[in-house]
Here is the input.
Amino acid sequence: MLPEDIIIKPIITEKSNEGIEEGKYTFKVDKKATKVDIAKAVEKLFNVKVVKVNTISIKGKAKRVGVHLGKTASWKKAIVMIDTDPSEDKYMKKGGKEVKTSKKYNSSIDGFMGM
Here is the structure.
């Protein structure tokens, strides 16, 4: 699956806007997508480092319009937590040489509200 097929659209509500301050973003995703697929898609599309993914499958509700009975579609929601402080990592190589790796990730998803 392509990343564009996995992430359908952002979910913008009061509760999801409160989570943006903590680095949590909410998306409507494909029902067949796994947490790993969602994390890779978000990393590729928005150039951020994903820390954690929570998913919720929402079942369709029974609706009635006049005498006709129907059901809304089932869908899947993903709450993605990103790394808001991408700092450099330092580690020791063989021979005692210190190596730095720079993380070139964004600290937020730009254009989340106007996606």
